[in-house]
Amino acid sequence: MNGVTDKRRLSQGAGQRGPAEHERRDQIIRAAEQHIHAVGYRRTSVADLARAIGVSTAYIYKFFDSKRAIGEAICAMTLHGIADKLWSIAEGPGSAEVRLRLIYSALVEQGRAMYFNERQLHEITLVAVEQNWSSIGTYIDTLQQIVRRIVLDGREAGEFERKTPIDEVCGAILQTMAPFSHPVLLQVRLDNLDESAGAVARLVLRSLAP
Amino acid sequence: MNGVTDKRRLSQGAGQRGPAEHERRDQIIRAAEQHIHAVGYRRTSVADLARAIGVSTAYIYKFFDSKRAIGEAICAMTLHGIADKLWSIAEGPGSAEVRLRLIYSALVEQGRAMYFNERQLHEITLVAVEQNWSSIGTYIDTLQQIVRRIVLDGREAGEFERKTPIDEVCGAILQTMAPFSHPVLLQVRLDNLDESAGAVARLVLRSLAP
C-alpha cells in the first residue's frame, strides 16, 4: 500500500506545468534522457535539448519551467525505477531477515549499475543531492518505508526484537544504508562494496535479534 | 601505541620537500592556514599565499611542490587534531560501551564545529575527499584502529560478543560512522545529527551484545 502512494509521489516533480498532456511531457523526458545520457546533464542547455529533440525551446517551456525541472523529472524517474525494485523485494517472499539482506545487495547493485552503465544518470543524482531536489527526499522517504515494512514484518513473525522504539530502529537502519545509497559515497569505493554491504547487513541483523 | 604510530603518519604528507627545516615549513603552513581560513582553498593560488605571507613563491616552492601539497599539510593537521581527540576518548576511562557512544558524539561535534566555525577547513576536506588525498586514507585508518581498540577492550571485558570475526565487526562499524564523518554527508543534514548518531550508536551496541 505504501509502495503505491510513494510511486505516485515519485512521478511528480517541481516546476512542471499543466496537469494533463502527459504524453507529450513524457516524450520530452525520454528524448531529454537520451540526449543527457550521451552528453551529460551539466553540459546540456534547454536550447541543446530542443535542437536534439527537434522542437522549439518555447515548446519545451510549455511543459517545463527550466532545465532543472527536466533534470528533476529524469531523476525522479530513475529513482522511481530503483524504488520499484526495492519494493518488490520488501513485499516479496522470504523471511524479514532475507529481505533485509537483499535490500543491501540491491542498493549496491543499483548503485554500481548506475555508476558504470549510466554514468550520466549518476551525474544527475550528484546534482540532485547537491541542490537538494525533492526527488531525493522522496526516495529517502521510500527507503524509510521499505525498512519499516520489513522490520514490522520481522517483529510480527518473532524474528526481530520489539523493545526498541520502531522509529529509532528504522531511522538508524536507514543511516547504515548511506554508504551504499548515497551517490557521492558510492563513487569513491566501488571495489569491496558487496563485502561491506554484507557486513553491515549482518551487523544490523545482529542488532535486531530478539 | 597505535595512536602514536598513526599520529606520526598524519604529520607527513605528499609532495613536501626536504627532511629538515621543519620550523620554516610549519610557519608556512600556519600562515597558509590563516589565509585560506579567510579566503578559501579553491580561490587561493601559491602566488596569493606568498604575497599574504610576505615571501617569494620560490621560497614556498622550496618547501612544497604545489598548492595541493600545502592543502594536504593543512588537511593532515586538521584531521590529526580530530584523531587526537578521538584517541583520547578511545584510550580514556569508561566502559567500551560508553567510549563507543562518545566516539559517535565526538564525530558529530567535530563535524559540526568544522562546518560552522571553520568552513574553509571543511572546504579543504571536501577537496581532499574529491581528489582522494592521502590524509583522508590515513584518517580512515585511524578511525578503524580506534574502533578496533574499543571493540577489543569490550570483548576482553565481556561487554561484547566474540563470535563474529573482529575484522568484519570493525569494518561494519566503520561504515555506520560514514553519515557522521564524511564531509559531504555532514553538510546536507546538520539538523538532527545528534539524535541520528545516538540511534546508530545504540543499534551498533545492540549488535555487539554478547
From TrEMBL, chains A, B:
UniProt-listed PROSITE patterns: HTH_TETR_1, HTH_TETR_2
Coiled-coil ranges (or none): none
UniProt region (Disordered), positions on chain: 1-24
Source superkingdom: Bacteria
Keyword Transcription regulation: yes
DNA-binding region: 45-64
UniProt keywords, alphabetically: DNA-binding, Transcription, Transcription regulation
Keyword Glycosyltransferase: no
Domain HTH tetR-type: 22-82
PANTHER family xref list: HTH-TYPE TRANSCRIPTIONAL REGULATOR BETI, HTH-TYPE TRANSCRIPTIONAL REGULATOR RUTR
UniProt name for this protein: TetR/AcrR family transcriptional regulator
Source organism: Novosphingobium album
